[in-house]
């Protein structure tokens, strides 16, 4: 769209009635400034609740352009640039993309010019050079809730430690890394920190890379904060029209927020897509208030962060033990020769064969991880010769949910999988093998996560983890050492019983 | 160095390995817009296909076609108003789930770059069809503003053709929300564009993204024939 440029302000083309002047795109305006807030203006509270802390396209706002513009004229709303082009470099103001590969241009029917747009965040609607992003610049809504946490459970001593540190980070607006082993019970230790935030009027968001985690967390939080309206945001969710003190969202949805949160909690900070994708890091940066607290939750921080934690350079709290007080099962390594060649020839290395057979005999379920879909599918028929119920699953499998469900009910004895089942999914009593653990796909954090699938339930706290390999890698050794170190620490602190 | 530059797939963003052979060394790399894995998910129209609308017949129950013409087209041919209005339709791909996703991203999300995926193949098809004027199916003014571009126009432009606007859309309600029956008995949605150059006795090729029931294309064809066009064919990316 275009704006009619006046000395002190702009008017959207659609609202111009017969006035002449220069029509410009928001991208071509030099330094568009927000107007001063007029404190006597009777602003629309519904618009305030809807727009506060967000950064949206005009099409995403269910209020008329007249009303939005009227708020702009009184300093309550501002039009911001969407895509900036300085003649050489392009920048997307919504997702922070500056990689030329992810921009394209077309002759735009709105501005009648060649218009560059961002392809990186296109799935949230097109942001182009003539697209303004609309933000709220008026007062933010206040909320107050007395004692909103209704939770009867108790925290383990190590959860208690983490909970205190989280509360402190919220209160003092600090950054904190919570390094908690798989199965430590991350959710419960957030409760008191969030209670602290809500009582002091701080808006909080929990961001996680995956939609299924949003769907799982929302009812859990709603149960312990029954009076708080929680917004649950993911692609296609219904909740986007409400203002909430507590937002649970996929990391993607953070792109629609602008300096909104006093406290931002990022779950599985190492997981795809957050660590892989610069876009989502920018999103997290932009969605948080400038002095807001930032809390990372992870079982597998990247190497640099680990080192910073051990050297005391990063504010962190480590939870080395699971809530059930059993030690973490430790992976063993098994050399299996050039397994790729064998699979191509239609064979399975003997060691792997034996491992599988003994699970089939004892009836214990198992997951077997493969580095690539193609190799896994080639190998599947040879596994099925041992037991026809063996299945394989990968990210593009249309029957993914059904297969995981069949694994849960015990209808599948052994499931071959790519790294999609590396995190999040828990089966109560399984063993785990990795075929080709030397592959680059299996980073330190992937291997720690894979090992973390075993021994999750208090009824079955142990299990076998074998990394079948054709050459030991640094990632394999580091992952094993990480788990050993956690057990050592837990023992020292008296957090495990054996 | 451009020779070994890897492009990213327009659909899945994974790197596309450049093919290096004598041809690419001599004439520069033949740039592919998408990776092979994505390309394999499109389903090209294969013979036998309906002689009129180009719908694939091999998966169709033989009850539903006669002498190489599908029952839908037979019905169109039985109507005095619509008989021979659209001489022939040619489509590149079947409208499968993957194509539906790509077209949604193209039209509704507004990812213009999707038009580049098909430019080479459309270019080839255009060379094989005998026509004088290439006419995109227009959008209403409101819809054009909303989307920022006309998908039919973009497909033609990216294929290196010169589309000419002979039509204007006066009816703006969304087609995709209508049933087939409603579409067949629809009031005329097109008018001749006032700026249209003369096209008497010309062979016209309409271009659009999807052929679904064929009613949009036939409505456009009728107007053009009434105004003196010799024949009207159509070309669409997908056959629904």
Automatic annotation (TrEMBL), chain A:
Helicase ATP-binding domain: residues covered: 167-319
Gene it is expressed from: comFA
All residue ranges annotated as the Helicase C-terminal domain in the record: 352-498
Family matches, as Pfam families: Helicase_C, ResIII
Top-level EC class as recorded in UniProt: hydrolase
Superkingdom: Bacteria
Taxonomic classification: Bacteria, Bacillati, Bacillota, Bacilli, Bacillales
GO molecular function: 3'-5' DNA helicase activity; ATP binding; DNA binding; hydrolase activity
Annotated PROSITE patterns: HELICASE_ATP_BIND_1, HELICASE_CTER
EC number of this enzyme: 3.6.4.12
Keywords (A to Z) from UniProt: ATP-binding, DNA-binding, Hydrolase, Nucleotide-binding
The protein, known as: ComF operon protein 1
GO terms, biological process: DNA recombination; DNA replication initiation; double-strand break repair
TrEMBL record, chain B:
Source superkingdom: Bacteria
Limits of the Phosphoribosyltransferase domain: 166-239
InterPro entries (alphabetical): ComF/GntX_DNA_util-trans (IPR051910), PRTase-like (IPR029057), PRTase_dom (IPR000836)
Assigned protein family: Belongs to the ComF/GntX family.
Entry protein name: Late competence protein
Organism: Caldibacillus thermoamylovorans
